[in-house]
Amino acid sequence: MDTWIYNEDIGPSPFEGFDVGGDGMSGYNIYGYEVIALRGYENSSLTPIVNGLKSGNVYDKFTLELRYRLPLIFCYCIWIDISGSW
After folding, report:
1. 80: helix, coil or strand?
2. How far is the C-alpha of 43 from the C-alpha of 23, rounded, in Å?
3. How do 75-85 and 33-36 pair as beta strands?
4. How many helices (H) and strands (E) does the chain have?
5. CA dist., res. 73 & res. 75, Å (int)
6. pLDDT tens-digit profile of 5-32?
7. How far apart are CA 10 and CA 55, in angstroms?
8. CB atoms inside a 10 Å sphere around CB 17
9. How many Cα atoms within 13 Å fall on the side-chain side of residue 64?
10. What are 35's strand-pairing partners?
11. Residue 76 near residue 68 (C-beta atoms within 8 A)
12. What is the per-residue pLDDT for 74?
């Protein structure tokens, strides 16, 4: 019997959760949750809510950023952030 398989009778773990989306500056004192910043989204907007509780126990995040500096005055930056939480 595999012990790592999700048990529907017990539900998601209250520890090692992830709060995905936003600036990453809020909620740093929440016990058992790690805040994952993601530009372009509101705070906690990508964290699923099940039965009124946040239940983001798994997340992935991909970031691509390209910066190009022109002489002394301009700097162009293009970025893409992709993420999900389950």
Report:
1. strand
2. 7
3. unpaired
4. 0, 6
5. 7
6. 666 777 667 677 888 888 877 766 667 7
7. 13
8. 22
9. 3
10. 19
11. yes
12. 83
Name the amino acid, one letter, at 3. Answer: T
DSSP string, 55-78: ----EEEEEEEEEEE-SSS-EEEE
Q: Are 22 and 15 in contact (CB under 8 A)?
A: no
pLDDT of residue 3: 52
Q: Distance between CA 39 and CA 23 in Å, rounded?
A: 6
Mean of the pLDDT values across residues 55-81? Answer: 84
Please tell me the predicted confidence (pLDDT) of residue 38. 86
Residue range 27-55, pLDDT digits in tens: 666 677 788 888 888 888 888 887 777 77
